[in-house]
């Protein structure tokens, strides 16, 4: 029998912390698409110019993920720019 994990949904406090980290980078809230369920170690992807998909990690300590947000946004931009058109 497969073990199922409970879904970790986002709450308003978590969203506010995410917005604080992206606001500090000058990233518009309009340009964020945030998964409603936390998964794995988290991920930031740029799906097109000016639009980022963010999945927050499952673990409870989000401070490290938010602290790495500049690095994650930069890496998402570099990866998107490197993809062939």
How are the SSEs placed, and which strands pair?
Blueprint: E1 8-9, H1 12-23, E2 32-34, E3 37-38, E4 43-48, E5 51-55, H2 63-67, H3 69-82
Parallel strand pairs: 2-5
Antiparallel strand pairs: 1-3, 4-5
Structure, described:
With 85 residues, the protein is α+β, with helices and mostly antiparallel strands. It has one domain (9-80). The chain has helices at residues 12-23, 63-67, 69-82; strands at 8-9, 32-34, 37-38, 43-48, 51-55. The strands form 2 sheets. The protein has a 3-stranded mixed beta sheet with strand order 2-5-4, covered by helices on one side. The radius of gyration is 14 Å and the shape is globular. It starts with 7 loop residues before the first strand and ends with a helix. The mean pLDDT is 90.
């Amino acid at each position: 029998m497969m073990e199922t994990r409970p879904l970790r949904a986002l709450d308003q406090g978590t969203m506010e912390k995410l917005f604080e980290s992206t606001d500090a980078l000058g990233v518009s809230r309009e340009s964020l698409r945030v998964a409603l369920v936390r998964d794995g170690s988290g991920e930031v992807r740029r799906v097109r110019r000016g639009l980022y998909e963010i999945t927050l990690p499952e673990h409870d300590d989000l401070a490290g993920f938010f602290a790495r947000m500049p690095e994650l946004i930069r890496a998402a931009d570099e990866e998107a720019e490197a993809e062939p058109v």
